[in-house]
Amino acid sequence: MPTVQDVCGFLMELAPLRLSEEWDNVGLLVGRSSREVTDLMTCLTLTPDVVRDAVEKHVGMIVSHHPVMFRKTQRITEDSVEGRMLLDLIEAGIAIYSPHTAFDSASAGINQQLSERMGLTGIQPFRPSEDTPSVGGGRFGRIPTPVSLAAFLETVRIVTSADYIEYVGEPDGVVSQVGVGCGSAGEFLRDAIRERCDTFVTGETRFHTALEARNAGVNLILLGHYSSERPAVEWLADEIGRQFPLIRAVASTIESDPLKLHGRSQ
Question: Which domain holds residue 156?
Answer without folding.
Answer: 107-223
